[in-house]
Amino acid sequence: MSKFKKKKKGLPAISTASLPDIVFMLLFFFMVSTTMRETDLLLQPIKFPSATEVKKLEHKSLVSTIYVGKSKDARISGDKIQVNDKIIDVKDIPSFIFSERALRKEEEVKYMTTSIKADKEANVGTILDIKEQLRDINALKVSFSTKGTNIRSNY
Question: Angle 150-154-155 (CA atoms, 0-180°, nearest 5)?
């Protein structure tokens, strides 16, 4: 007989020392990769017109968006224009575009695009007024958002 008994060794306990590191790595990853909504829509939800041939915008960071639609307040009639988080008048569009240009580098200004997201029930006169204001300040790259079925892009 032996004086010493062999103790059976089981599996060692799982170390949780690195668990906080993993949690903070995941938290940091999601904080960096998530984009927040830039503007809150003050208009009724926009119903986009349909299109058959559409093209994706390439430089989405260089896009200034103008929303056109009906106000959420039922007492206010007519089309409303929203940029960022405020309702503006047509005559305020040049100052909006100039402020957007001021935020960009000088070499990026020529690649800037103005995107008009208009409701399909919006008055064409309002959109023409917006286009005229954009033409007056030489903002000639304009895109219209649609719900397209055939999206094609140039790669």
Answer: 120
Identify whether 19 is part of a domain: no
7 conformational bin, left if phi > 0, alpha if psi -120 to 50, beta if neither: beta
> What predicted TM-score, i.e. pTM, was given to this entire model?
0.72
Flag whether 78 is in a domain: yes
Quick one: which H or E segment has residue 87? Answer: strand 86-88
Helix axes 124-136, 93-102, angle to 10 degrees: 50
Rounded Cα distance between 119 and 79, Å, is: 9
Is residue 66 within 8 Å of 114, Cβ to Cβ?
yes
Q: Which residue has the tokens 């200004």?
A: 109
Query: Domain residues for 61?
Result: 50-152
What CATH number is associated with residue 141? 3.30.420.270
Summarised one tens digit per residue, pLDDT across range 55-111 is 888 888 899 999 999 988 878 888 999 998 899 999 999 999 999 999 999 999 999
Counted domains in the chain: 1
Q: Helix, strand, or coil here: 144?
A: strand
